[in-house]
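Handout, page 2. Input:
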Amino acid sequence: MDYLYRLAAATILFSILSLQANAQKMSRQEYIERYKELAIKEMNEFRIPASITLAQACLESADGNSKLAVEANNHFGIKCSNWTGDTIYHHDDKKNECFRKYKNVEQSFTDHSIFLTKARYAQLFKLDPTDYKSWAKGLSEAGYATNPRYAEHLIKIIEDFSLYRLDSPDSYKVVADNSENNIRERVSPVDSTYKAGFEFSIDRSDNKINGKRYIIAGSNDSYESIASEFNLFHKEILRFNDLESDESLTPGTIVFVEKKGKKGSKDNPTYTVGNEKSYREIAQKTGIRLKNLLKLNSLTETSTPVGGKKIKLR
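Output:
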């Protein structure tokens, strides 16, 4: 009898806790009402449609009910890459992955906006900020999520709850550009102790040399941060750029984000040495792996380029 009594009491307690948990869960409509003003603030500050921010937040945080949202104020599932703040561990693609933990929800929304200023999302900022469909498709095409129907999910939330109304001119104000160099400067107004200052160019995009993708490093870039932008391992970005170990990155430096070629194209079979101080510098300018460039010209790693000399690229 004592056992049955304890079992019944435990069952009742479990039922009560379950009911309390369900009662505390936020509905999607409640979530939207609670955070729509925050999404509008982010739109005014970063030029990201409020409808997109809010729809993503609904999806990523399970309408504010996910473990990351409840325990870490992390409403967008942003992981710990290049993060020095508090953390929380959670099973995701792998077990016990590291995620960012914020002091408040506002920090999470601002960090999400900053996350979208990575180079891989630069094309989005050329879109009309009221064109939520193009933004949703652009996020998906840029690889924001692995779900092939991610854009569809965002659009459905936006249309089901009329979130596109948040993107109207009444909600949006244009933030002035520095027209000379097309750089936007933003500083988070949320918390003065939370350093979110940064700058980025909306025209930053990847280009190609010898058919291989590269970007031009900015003032705040490092090899590690660029690796994170393009979903690469740190070691990969170093290998792609013929580096044995990390080094400081000078603004204006060519950084390849994929493997360089083994040889040049038929249209560019040779290269005339200019003022380059190393063959690695030439390898970067021509988009050819250093070891292949040296092999093609019977050179060693200690060889020094001679100005005016022609070298083989294939």
